[in-house]
Amino acid sequence: MRLKSKKKQKVLLVVNTGSYFPLLFRIARLLKKSGKYEPVIYLMAYPTTLVHLRECETNEIAYLLDNTVKAMLRKANGYLKVYQYLVSVITKNQLIHLLLRIRSVKSLIKDHNIELVVLAGDIIGHDTAVFIKAGHLCGISTVITPFVMGSKLETVYSVMHNPDHSMDNWLNRFVGALFPKWVYEHEGRSLLRVPAGRVIALELLGMAPKLPWIIHSGHSDAIAVESEEMRRYCRQEGLPAEKLVLTGTVAHDDLAVGLKEKEIRLEALCFSLGLNNAKPLILTALPPNMMYGYWRPDCDFDTYEEMVKFWLATLANLKEYNVIVSLHPSVIIDDMEYIEKYGVKITQEKIIDLIPLCDFFVTAVSSTIQWAIACGKPVVNYDVYKYRYADYLKVPGVLTFEEKEKYIEYTNRLAYDKAFFQLYAAKQRSCMKEWGNLDGRAGARLLELFASLMASNGAFRK
């Protein structure tokens, strides 16, 4: 008699923004490969949603679309404009907006028999609290697998110049007096974490994070941290120790394989791009365009195009090196093909597969720096937008600065001063284990955590 196969447990992975997709997609593949779980990726609206949708289809990963994405796909009949108008009306009333979102996500969880929700972050602006709340109302757990941990000051800088967060607004002042944890004073400015209507709605619905100015401080059941350094950082920022589970990230397993197969992969990469594989390699993660809104008044460049030209032309001048560019996940490659005129090559390979292959890494306050550290690669961290984050200031193999002159100096010294390069490579190797355990078992540890959460039906919940 043939035994019936055990039904696979469904796991919902929520992609709120393009930056989250690479990590969650890797987790989805891990879940599928295990044979025990059926991953379902929930795609929200962002510039590269349709690209990621096609990637799900190609790899036969199930996906669901947020209503905004569905509206985008129906734009030919005018449905999109009607939908956008209705959304704009509803979102002005945050309480109604959140109640409708919770109801929608609850229905999704029940209709698709979801047994665990996985988020790449718990950030107020991304409506992640909705998925946590809906999951708990349905009796299932939510786990965060963050690829980044931001300090309180990073959150402050993100809203500092936005008048919607100013306490000059009488309603913001009133709500701030009622709920003082949402208020922060910095450089003579008094700020409210989110506008007053959002604060009231989150408080009334029991969805307010315990530490509004710290990301991932909401009501998730567990936070899967990827390194000892991230766990220390989380504790320093006030997140509860009992929620922090040191698993590593699926990215670490890929990094480990990449380091072992460096030579053959590098040869294949250079062949595909028409490069001489005898040359050493500089990898740069080009920062996305952040010259909009209220956030970048101190930047030394007037336009994004001006910054890109300086950034890439400087690297292209290092003639003895191959220079390849990894674009931000939120960027559409067709919009950036022009940059190859500066003498660099764009690759569509995932950055996690590229970091093990490079000699040194050039970027701007990116979360990917932690992966370069874990691989022992020296990093040029050019804070071009002057975020002034402190995340990597104490890492000995990361050169952090915000001046154009130092960008030229440090890239040239790493490229041509052998002693300087060897010094910073050795410094990076001295602390690499604190930033990632490349034992190849991070995926297994994540699956163990997921299984325990589903088995306990929310035992981590506080």
Automatic annotation (TrEMBL):
Species whose genome carries this gene: Anaeroselena agilis
Xref: InterPro entries: TagF_C (IPR043148)
Gene3D superfamilies for the chain: 3.40.50.12580
Lineage, uppermost ranks: Bacteria, Bacillati, Bacillota, Negativicutes, Acetonemataceae
Record-given protein name: Uncharacterized protein
